[in-house]
Write a structure and sequence with these properties.
This protein is an alpha+beta fold. The chain has 13 helices and 15 strands. The chain has two domains: 249 residues, Beta-lactamase (3-Layer(aba) Sandwich); 106 residues, no CATH class.
């Protein structure tokens, strides 16, 4: 089977998944070496629920809330500060954010946060959207929290990752994370937005919960108020780094294409030294995660593949580096083939669905690329 045929099969499978109701709408983009090989839009951005009005079709410009698929972008901002000699990740967070050191957190390092080994989880914040618009209040809640696990315990930080590192960036760079990234990223990647204006919220695809009435991750019921919390304008206009970025599959694929190129854009403009970025995308830690209750291989803010079935493919995705978002988004780069892949949807069901839905698509696309690159 030719490369074009395999990519055609991937597109047909993506459209079929949408047609049978696995997700209401989505985008699939594949890039490599400055070229776009696939750009697919399917289904509806909103209008699934009767009270939402007429369905609105997805286009390639429709922004989606990509949730934790934003964590590599947060990590990239930290990496740039490290690359500039302004930050040392082995130092305690409290060196940069003094109030963070309260309640037994004085020794927690920036690297602990990047690799989800700080033990700092603040579950009551996950269900407090009324606090999210107040950055200083969020920081106060985190500073006053005691670690849930001993430092060094692998326990994924769903929201804490971005809130803590976002404050580190703010203290070191002297401006907010979105403002710093506005300076660092080229125009083609500035649609990776961590906070949007009120008027722009009506353009964002709605996130839908399609799974069971109760679904627990890290001991918390993520199904409860899922659509209410994730689609609230106050959520989209708040700064929740690492958990609430709005963007397109095209921008996500472009970001991971840059990562695969060692921090350089296709036009040759370098954003970061490759040796610094390499520390973030190679394996840093692996093991059973106490929060997600699953095995993980992690870089610094990036999730890596492994030998067994993974959203990055059915088999041997160890050269893949990226991240998932919620239970509806996968974006990664394949270091073996040079393919940067982003699959962005608005249907959430559960962890098992993520693998069943994305693994066959990832496998088809990755198989196409040895013949293309």
């Amino acid at each position: 089977m030719s490369s074009d045929e395999m990519l055609g099969k991937a597109e047909a499978l993506f459209r079929r998944q949408q047609a049978i109701g696995l997700f209401p709408g989505g985008q699939l983009v594949v890039r490599a070496q400055g070229r776009e090989f696939l750009n697919v839009s399917a289904g509806i951005a909103r209008g699934l629920r009767p009270w939402e009005g007429e369905p609105v079709p997805v286009t390639d410009a429709t922004p989606f809330q990509v949730m934790s698929a934003s964590k590599p972008v947060v990590a990239f901002a930290v990496a740039v500060l490290e690359d500039r000699g302004l930050l040392e990740v082995e130092r305690p967070v409290a060196h940069y954010v003094p109030q963070f050191g309260r309640e037994g957190k004085a020794d927690v390092t920036v690297l602990d946060i990047l690799t989800h080994r700080s033990g700092v989880l603040v579950p009551h914040l996950w269900h407090s959207p009324e606090i999210w618009p107040d950055w200083d209040r969020v920081q106060q809640e985190i500073s006053n929290a005691r670690p849930r696990y001993r430092r060094g315990t692998l326990a994924y930080h769903p929201w804490e990752f971005g809130w803590i590192l976002g404050e580190v960036v703010r203290q070191v760079a002297g401006r907010s994370l979105p403002e710093f990234l506005e300076e660092v990223l080229p125009e083609s990647l500035r649609s990776l937005r961590f906070r949007i204006d009120q008027d722009a919220t009506r353009l964002v695809a709605r996130s839908y919960w399609l799974g069971p009435k109760s679904y627990r991750i890290a001991g918390q019921d993520v199904a409860a108020r899922f659509e209410e919390n994730n689609n609230a304008p106050s959520t989209l206009t708040s700064l929740i780094p690492g958990a609430s970025m709005t963007t397109t599959a095209s921008a996500l694929a472009g970001f991971h294409e840059m990562v695969l190129a060692g921090g350089a854009m296709a036009n040759g403009v370098r954003l970061i030294r490759s040796e610094t970025l390499e520390r973030y995308i190679r394996p840093n830690v692996s093991g059973f995660d106490r929060a997600l209750r699953s095995y993980l291989v992690l870089g610094r803010g990036f999730m890596l593949g492994w030998l067994w079935p993974h959203p990055y493919g059915w088999w041997n995705s160890r050269q893949c580096v990226g991240h998932g978002g919620g239970l509806c988004v996968i974006a990664f780069g394949d270091r073996r083939t040079g393919a940067a892949i982003a699959m962005v949807t608005n249907g959430n069901k559960g962890m098992g669905d993520v693998v069943r839905r994305f693994a066959p698509l990832s496998s088809l696309i990755r198989k196409a690329f040895p013949r293309l690159t």
